[in-house]
């Protein structure tokens, strides 16, 4: 092996001679093409700092306009709360727009002027809101006040869209027109949120005509890459239904599903607009690259000047490139293949062997980096082995403790049942029923430990069980079972092998609903047949869950994570996700109309059977009926 040299020395030797020649080359081409190229590349920056936050602010203003009109149509606690929440979101979008626009508003005098116009209009929000709260403004006045702000924002869109590339500018202008068409649809929503007056219908008719004209005109001007998504929207059944509702409103009607239908189409329209904007931003970069490519062609005149430098740097550059490429490939192999495979094998309990990472190089730093990667690889494997052993040991502890508890609880239930049969005193019988209920809950917690350990609980049934009995059995396993209302359900049945797990799953959801809702509120359990099986709904009337947290919980329920010992507050969530994954059951959380949370459990059709045509002997219920006992 040759004498090792530092990478710094090699880079200096590689660049020293070409640098002097390249200075002359870049001095020639920079003055010619720098301004045009930078302007094209600035398009993406303007999109990020101006158009995108302006679009977000517009969307929030549209929602606030609709919520304000709802308040003027009928004041209620729910409407007032909805408007207050929306105003907070609008203020947040306004603050974000101010922060981002400050970075790019001085790009040109025209953009700075238009941003000032937008900020001036947005400052009127406090006065507009005050008139709304005091009842000094009518519905049309409020709508026009918000319209002035959104018009200023669309003026900013048009100003930012100016670019020297004519095809790109034309398509950007058409996309902005489509965005304004969506704004007109939002104005329609606000006007027709309830019964309309003659003046409101006249304005509604004008908005409908203008929006339809903008869409029809824009579709003819879009290129094929942008037209396809827009055409699929305007030819969809939802859009045709929207047009029919518009005609009904123009004729004096008030379709009940107008808001939901228009909101659904508006959301799809917004997604299409976002996609189109992103596509135009991507197109700007190749245009800028083309300008740079033309600049490189101009550098051909300097070819003779740099040919000597290229010949000198070729040998050293090739060698260094190969060494760095080999190191890169080795590092990527470790990061993307070796370590993930090792971790997966360790999770399965297999033995692993990790070969040492070696990179052939004459550069000291590259050799050191290769050795460091090898050390990191070994350390990561050792950590993964330790973690796997710890996880397996914890699982064994959980499983052993739970199995012992199950045995004791089973014996305890047998004794309690015998005592209940022999008891004659009503008070003593009530106490025995309470103890029986506590034993049932303790059994479920023991099963939870078994599930967290990766094993399968032993509880199961040989015959299908009616869904109503499954729901009743789950409600009997929670502490506040008196608050649980199990509504009548279809006579479909659940396959015996999955009954125990489904009872446990629903019981965890019911208990969570009782814990996180006021003690005086009921928890309702419903069930119905769906196209893909059978769905249980567990609804509480608590304080609900925030949108971000709700999305995180649904993600964890859809993809069960590894059990984290530090996250002991989420044991029920781990158990539910494990049980759902075991039987391909889908569990989804969403907001409840009562302000709480609704858990939906979709059981696949393969586990559901229809009731028998002939009446048969009623199967044993999954949980012995529990006598209702009054609390102390």
UniProtKB/TrEMBL annotation:
PANTHER family per UniProt: SENSOR HISTIDINE KINASE TRCS, SENSOR HISTIDINE KINASE YKOH
EC nos: 2.7.13.3
Annotated segments matching region Disordered: 606-632
SUPFAM superfamilies for this protein: ATPase domain of HSP90 chaperone/DNA topoisomerase II/histidine kinase (SSF55874)
Pfam families: HATPase_c, NIT
Composition-biased stretches (Basic and acidic residues): 615-624
The organism's place on the tree of life at top rank: Bacteria
InterPro entries named in the record: HATPase_C_sf, HATPase_dom, His_kinase_dom, Nitrate/nitrite_sensing, TCS_sensor_his_kinase
UniProt keyword list: Kinase, Membrane, Phosphoprotein, Transferase, Transmembrane, Transmembrane helix
Species this protein is from: Nonomuraea indica
Membrane spanning residue stretches: 12-34, 291-314
Catalytic activity entry: ATP + protein L-histidine = ADP + protein N-phospho-L-histidine
Enzyme class: transferase
Keyword tRNA processing: no
Protein name, UniProt field: histidine kinase
Histidine kinase domain ranges (all copies): 502-607
């Amino acid at each position: 092996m040759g004498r090792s040299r530092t990478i710094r020395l090699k880079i200096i030797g590689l660049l020293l001679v070409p640098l002097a020649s390249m200075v002359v080359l870049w001095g020639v081409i920079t003055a010619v093409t720098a301004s045009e190229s930078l302007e094209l590349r600035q398009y993406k920056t303007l999109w990020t700092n101006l158009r995108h936050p302006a679009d977000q602010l517009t969307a929030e203003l549209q929602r606030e306009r609709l919520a304000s009109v709802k308040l003027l149509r009928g004041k209620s606690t729910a409407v007032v709360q909805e408007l207050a929440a929306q105003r907070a979101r609008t203020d947040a979008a306004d603050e974000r727009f101010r922060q981002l626009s400050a970075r790019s508003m001085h790009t040109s005098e025209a953009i700075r002027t238009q941003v000032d116009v937008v900020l001036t209009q947005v400052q009127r929000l406090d006065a507009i809101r005050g008139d709304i709260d005091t009842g000094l403004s009518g519905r049309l006045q409020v709508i026009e006040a918000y319209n002035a702000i959104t018009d200023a924002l669309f003026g900013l869109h048009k100003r930012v869209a100016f670019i020297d590339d004519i095809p790109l500018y034309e398509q950007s202008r058409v996309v902005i027109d489509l965005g304004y068409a969506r704004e007109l649809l939002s104005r329609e929503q606000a006007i027709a949120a309830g019964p309309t007056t003659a003046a409101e219908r006249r304005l509604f008719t004008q908005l409908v005509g203008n929006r339809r004209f903008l869409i029809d005109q824009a579709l003819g001007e879009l290129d094929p890459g942008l037209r396809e998504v827009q055409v699929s929207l305007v030819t969809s059944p939802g859009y045709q239904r929207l047009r029919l509702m518009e005609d009904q409103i123009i004729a004096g009607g008030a379709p009940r599903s107008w808001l939901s239908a228009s909101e659904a189409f508006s959301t799809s329209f917004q997604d299409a607009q976002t996609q189109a904007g992103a596509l135009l931003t991507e197109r700007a970069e190749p245009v800028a690259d083309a300008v740079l490519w033309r600049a490189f062609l101009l550098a051909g005149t300097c070819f003779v000047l740099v040919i000597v430098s290229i010949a000198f740097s070729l040998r050293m550059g090739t060698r260094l490139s190969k060494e760095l490429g080999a190191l890169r490939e080795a590092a990527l192999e470790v990061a993307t293949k070796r370590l993930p495979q090792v971790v997966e094998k360790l999770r399965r309990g297999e033995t692993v062997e990790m070969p040492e990472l070696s990179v052939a190089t004459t550069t000291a730093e590259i050799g050191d980096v290769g050795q460091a990667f090898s050390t990191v690889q070994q350390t990561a494997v050792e950590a993964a082995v330790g973690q796997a052993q710890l996880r397996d040991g914890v699982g064994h502890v959980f499983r052993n403790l739970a199995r012992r508890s199950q045995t004791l609880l089973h014996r305890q239930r047998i004794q309690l049942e015998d005592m209940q049969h022999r008891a004659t005193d009503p008070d003593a019988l009530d106490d025995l029923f309470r103890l029986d209920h506590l034993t049932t809950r303790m059994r479920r917690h023991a099963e939870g430990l078994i599930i967290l350990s990766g094993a399968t609980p032993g509880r199961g049934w040989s015959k299908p069980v009616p869904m109503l009995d499954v729901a009743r059995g789950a409600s009997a396993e929670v502490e506040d079972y008196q608050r649980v209302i199990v509504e009548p359900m279809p006579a479909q049945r659940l396959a015996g092998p999955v009954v125990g797990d489904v009872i446990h799953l629903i019981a965890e959801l019911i208990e969570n609903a009782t814990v996180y809702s006021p003690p005086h509120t009921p928890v309702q359990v419903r069930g119905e047949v769906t196209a893909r099986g059978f769905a249980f709904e567990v609804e509480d009337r608590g304080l609900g869950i925030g949108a971000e947290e709700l999305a995180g919980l649904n993600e964890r329920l859809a993809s069960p994570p590894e059990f984290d010992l530090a996250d002991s507050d989420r044991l029920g969530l781990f158990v539910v996700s494990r049980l759902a994954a075991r039987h391909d059951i889908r569990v989804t959380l969403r907001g409840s109309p009562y302000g709480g949370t609704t858990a939906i459990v979709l059981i696949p059709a393969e586990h559901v059977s229809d009731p028998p045509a002939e009446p048969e002997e009623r199967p044993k219920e999954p949980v012995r009926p529990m006598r209702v006992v009054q609390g102390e």
